[in-house]
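Per reviewer request, we include the raw input and output of the structure prediction for the construct analysed in the revised manuscript.
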Amino acid sequence: MTTTYLVIFIISFVFILLLTLLSDLVDSVFDLVWSAILLKDIPFLNPVSIFASLTVFGAVGYILSTFSTLASLITFLISLSLAIFTTICLFFLIIKPKEMSETSLSYSMKQLVGLPATVTVPIPANGFGEVLIKLGGGNSNQIAASYDSVDIAQDAKVFVVDEKEGVVYVSLLNI
C-alpha cells in the first residue's frame, strides 16, 4: 500500500506542477475533458482541487504507512479525510474568491456604442474632435466625429451612436 500512496503522490504532484507552470495551455485541455465528463457543473470538482487533494491523500498515506504503526484502514481513512478537508479549504479559501475577483479593465470599441460622453475637443461638422467616456474603473478619451454632420461644442453632452475604424460617431444628447 505504501507504493500506491507514493505513486498517487508523485503523479498528482506532477499534475499540480503542470497546472501551475503551464496553466493557460493545460486549462483549456482540462476544461475540455471536464466538460466531456460533466464535472464542469460541480464547482469544487475542478482540476486544481482534485489533484491537490490527491497529492495530500498520497503524501499523508505514504507518511503514515511508512512511519507509523497504524492499520492500513485507519491510514486510508485519515488520508481520505485530510484530502477532503484540503479540497473544501482550497475551494472556499482560494478558488472561489479568485473566480469572483477576476475582472478585466479592457473593453471593446463596440462596447462604447450607446454610452454617454462629454466633448473635450470641439467636433466640426465634417472633422474630428475628442470625447471623454466614463467607463467602470476610469475614463477613456476617444477620437470622435459627428454622426449628424453638425458642429458640436466643447463640454457638450453626447452619446456614442456608432464606431468605425477606431473613431466613435457621436450625436448630441438632447434631454
